[in-house]
Amino acid sequence: MNNLQVSEDHVAQIFDLPNDLIINILSRLPAKSIAKCRCVSKLWSSIFRRPRFNEFFPIKSSASPRFMFTFVVEDKILFFLSPQPQDPNENSSSVASYLVGSDHHTEFTGNQELCLPINGFVCRQYQVIKYRKVVAICNPITGESLTLPKMGAQFIDARSYFGFDPINKQFKVLCLTWHNMGIHVKSEKYQVMTLGVGKVLWRTIKCRKPHYPLHDGICINGVLYYRAHDVEKGSGISIIVCFDVRSEEFKFINLDKDMLVGSSWVLINYKGKLGAVDINVNRFMLVVLEDARNHKWSKHIIYKVPDSWRELRITTPLQFVGATSTGEIVLSPAYLTDPFYVYYYNLERNTLIRVRVQGLEAFPNHRVHTFLDYVEDFNLM
């Protein structure tokens, strides 16, 4: 029996495998199996916690971005992934596979906001009780979820944004809180939290221009953009807020004059630049920020939407998802339907192509969030 006893040091030596061999083993496993491997032992868990793990592990999904679909069913938020066609046609289809289900806070009320995923991580904010919102970061691949500490001040409402500093490789959450509803803000507070640097704490930062945040934000090349009302100039004045994730400084851009009308504009990443899209039955419009310093926008207007828009008989409300690397605008229904389609709109050809996504039929009428270009990340929090 004594001959079978092996010291922990001996075990560590046995499993202290070269990186090349570790990569060879792990590269043969599917994503779900890789995520489960961290539970095998402390040694395996430490392998996944090595700095820059993703840089020496050949993640195949980076070359094959995917759609992510997420929605709430009872007390769980579900995540599904499906292949994202790069050159779709009328015969294109995709199959969504279940990834993970994450439990909500026990007092979850159903009011949920999600930020665009960044490097595999998802930031979500949800209401638990009146005047109480919770911010959580999750990795759908590993199944981990981190609930952030409470904000340090009492507030009426809050909105959180998720950003990434590509220089220092740091994730940050920007949270804006205010003390009364609407645009007549008596007092607001700006707080930032840096993730992955030991104890996570909210830090208060300064902003020279009081503003009331609107809609979702988007992070492009280390800059977090979101629309806001200029509180000092009144409710009719909207601006683009630019938050440098690395320096934690705010700048502001005036909107194109056509963007001042209505609130249906959605910010997107258009070929690496900030873009904004809007559509109605008569025309489609895309504006792209060409020069942030001088507030210069380029404009693309299509005064007649394609006939296929009517021929497809789209009866459910569509929402903008984003733009592909080639500049096609992607839209999807706001609620799950059967059948469920994602739509590609090509501006140059003025054509609309739909791609059927299978595997979501069991959840009709659920509010769904669709994301483009999701790339798996196996790092642990």
Automatic annotation (TrEMBL):
Coiled coil: none
Cited Pfam families: F-box, FBA_3
All copies of domain F-box, residue ranges: 11-60
PROSITE patterns in the record: FBOX
NCBIfam families in UniProt: F_box_assoc_1
Protein name, entry field: F-box protein
Lineage: Eukaryota, Viridiplantae, Streptophyta, Embryophyta, Tracheophyta
